[in-house]
Specification:
The structure is a single chain. By secondary structure, the protein is α+β, with helices and mostly antiparallel strands. 71% of the residues lie in helices and 9% in strands. The chain is built from 11 helices and 7 strands. The strands form 2 sheets. A 5-stranded mixed sheet has the order 2-4-5-7-6, covered by helices on one side. It has a two-stranded antiparallel ribbon with strand order 1-3. The protein is rod-shaped and about 205 Å long.
Length: 503
């Protein structure tokens, strides 16, 4: 089965950016097209309004002239003034509509001649009708008949109707064109909106699909990580148990080895005492028998020298070596016991613990003419009191032991809280310092640095590092030769329960 190509975070960002850009461009195009079609529709709308006003003015003008002409004919035919009732109103309306028609056609310069001619025709038509009405009122029917027979009024009306028809036909054409353009604009807008909406829907759909795929893969990855974490936790627990068992075996082995080493060492020390007693007896016997007093007897003389000088010196070397070996075995046992000791977490005041450690070696500090300053302003911590006392006791004892003899001893202990619910502790002195190449080696078992003018087996700092790590912390050192040394300790403010139980 083919595997789906994984959707990466970069792909999602890029694809989403592309979709957003396409969607933005589509939206921008829709807005631009809508604005352009709106402006175009406004132009045709204004043209339609002008055409409507022009047509209305032309129709009303024509109707007013025709109404006035009908009123004039009725009066001329009957002589009855009642027929002239609408004449004045029609004439006033015609003149007013003529002015309106001039105004609406004023922007169209090509219609100026036509408008001027129509205005002349309307004026002449009303002049002819006014004259015939006046003559009829004076009962000059012969003159009225003569004017009518000239067909001047009919010719003017026919010419005016030609202009009216032209104006109405032109405005109808403009109205038809405007309505068609408005329909076309609406069609364009509808089509473009649908097309843009489809693009936006496709963009949103594509972005949604990529996000859904990415989210699904994230969920699957999270589930896989959860499974792996569960498996990893199981493996870690198993490895931790194996490590704890191995550590216990190592501690047990160290204890057994040191115990077995100490047994023959005790025997050696015991036999050495017996040999030493035998030598004393031999020495007494030689002295009593005066063996070796004869200078001519070299064997006797050599025996006296062996008993009185060489054998005691050898026994002294044996005792010194056994004492050295005994101290080393004791150091190994101490580390082994510390590894097996169960920690006892309790709430402690760090200043109180450090103060007790300082008080324990105050006589040494006083003899060295030194002083200790404390700057400890931290909240209470939960840890193992004995481990802390052993740590500070060793560090303070080292500061006194390896002080710079040419200046008064100064020791400073500072502590401050740091992020991660931890405490940063520093123990600084102005002693002889530690060379750069020795700053890590001093934490190794049976390793010492600098001049070997002080007693010790090189176990103190190795023991301190073991104790600090048992507390879940870490220790490091910085130093400047002939200026001083600073030990930096980083401890959790609360001893993890897992560490206490594991230890």
């Amino acid at each position: 089965m083919a595997m789906a190509m994984p959707v990466t975070n970069r792909f999602v960002v890029q694809s989403t950016s592309v979709f957003l850009l396409v969607g933005f461009l589509a939206l921008l195009a829709i807005v631009g097209m809508t604005f352009w079609l709106g402006e175009r529709s406004q132009v045709y709308f204004n043209d339609v309004i002008e055409a409507r006003d022009t047509r209305a003015s032309a129709v009303e003008l024509r109707n007013a002239v025709q109404t006035a002409e009908s009123s004039q004919r009725g009066f001329l035919f009957t002589g009855n003034e009642i027929y002239l009732a609408p004449y004045g109103t029609a004439k006033a309306l015609a003149l007013r509509q003529m002015q309106t028609l001039k105004q609406v056609l004023q922007p169209y310069r090509q219609s100026d001649i036509m408008v001027e001619r129509l205005s002349t025709i309307v004026a002449e038509k009303f002049s002819e009708m006014d004259r015939t009405i006046a003559l009829k009122r004076e009962r000059k029917d012969a003159e009225v008949a003569a004017i009518v027979r000239t067909n001047r009024g009919k010719a003017l009306m026919d010419e005016a109707n030609v202009f009216f028809s032209g104006i109405i036909r032109s405005t109808d054409q403009r109205l038809t064109t405007g309505v068609g353009e408005q329909k076309a604009n609406a069609g364009w807008l509808r089509s473009f909106s649908i097309f843009g909406a489809l693009i936006i829907v496709a963009v949103v759909g594509g972005a949604a699909v990529s996000i859904v795929l990415y989210t699904r893969q994230l969920r699957e990855a999270r589930d896989e990580v959860s499974i792996l974490n569960a498996e990893l936790e199981g493996r870690v627990e198993a490895r931790t148990a194996d490590l704890a068992r191995a550590n216990q075996e190592i501690q047990r082995f160290a204890y057994i080895v040191t115990h077995d080493l100490r047994a023959p060492l005790v025997n050696i020390m015991g036999f050495t005492s017996e040999v030493e007693g035998g030598i004393r007896s031999m020495q007494a016997l030689i002295d009593k028998a005066q063996i070796g007093d004869d200078p001519t007897d070299p064997v006797a003389k050599e025996a006296r020298v062996a008993v009185s000088e060489e054998l005691p010196e050898a026994i002294g070397f044996i005792r010194s070596s056994t004492r050295k070996m005994d101290s080393l075995i004791s150091a190994i046992l101490k580390l082994s016991r510390e590894g097996r000791r169960s920690l006892r977490p309790e709430t402690l005041e760090l200043a109180e613990v450090v103060g007790a450690s300082v008080a324990a070696i105050q006589h040494q500090i006083s003899e060295a003419g030194g002083e200790v300053t404390l700057d400890i302003d931290v909240p209470p911590l939960v840890s193992d009191r004995l481990s802390l006392e052993q740590t500070f006791g060793n560090l303070l004892d080292n500061a006194v032991k390896y002080r710079f003899r040419q200046r008064p001893l100064r020791i400073g202990v500072e502590a401050a809280p740091v992020p991660g619910d931890r405490l940063s502790i520093s123990v600084a002195d102005n002693g002889r310092g530690i060379a750069e190449q020795d700053r890590e080696r001093i934490f190794d078992l049976f390793s010492r640095a600098g001049a070997q003018d002080q007693p010790g087996e090189g176990i103190g700092l190795a023991y301190v590092r073991t104790v600090v790590r048992n507390l879940g912390g870490e220790i490091s050192v910085s130093s400047v030769p002939d200026e001083g040394t600073v030990f930096h300790i980083l401890l959790p403010r609360t001893l993890p329960a897992a560490l206490a139980s594991a230890t």
